[in-house]
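Write out the 3D structure for:
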Amino acid sequence: MKWTSLFNKTENISAAAAKEYIAEKSQTSFQLIDVRQPKEYQEQHLPGAVLIPLNELKERLGECIPNLPTIVYCRSGVRSKAACQILQDHNFTEVLNLSGGILQWQGSTAHGSEAFGLDFFIQGNYGNGFEIAYHLEKGLQQFYLLLAKEASSQGITDLLQKMAQMEEGHMALLIAQSKNAGLQIKTSSHSSGIIEGGLSLTQLQTAFGDNIKTREAVLQLAMMLEAQAWDLYSRLARISTKEIEQEFYQQMSVEEQKHLDKLTAELDNLL
């Protein structure tokens, strides 16, 4: 399918077509704009989406790139259609409205504010984006290993240990890529003490409550965290000014999508 033909023929795109488009394109080759209110965004949003409420759109057009393909969505498609008109009136040439809005979306979503679900792992001050990402991966690795010890079945234990191994691979990639970018990651210290001191199951229970008590809940929580990580890397790719950083964060975003796919398949087997 030629995606440019979609933009030439119509201002609408179905949820299924949008999901396929997002999966096939790099995060920096298009922009995804959520024109709902902050509270709606916190409840759920598409990973990588920029929140610009409809009433703020005209004043914040400078945050958008007119020559990038743009997908706009809201709850049901009404507000986003109005937003599309505003963008087109300001010379945004490739604009699509997500038909039916997020109500029709069948893909993964991120929840909470931009930091929700991740702030537990990345508290403190960091020297650069690579360092933030490293401690996120390290925190998630410890999280999966702790859950693996408490898992009620060998199958879930194996899955969580595999997820932890994937995070180890991501950490190695981050160290290598940061060196290529001339940046340093402090791997042995953390201002909040969470990573250095290690996570405990008690801490996790306090932070996430009932979300770690059953097999299904563990998978759903892991899916939420992977979607949040996908969201984070997408945002880092978008705001980075150096091409090498953009490319790497995009790569990490794709990896998180793969993690999410694995967890989704495992959840399907349980249901």
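Confidence is low (pLDDT under 50) at residues 191-198.
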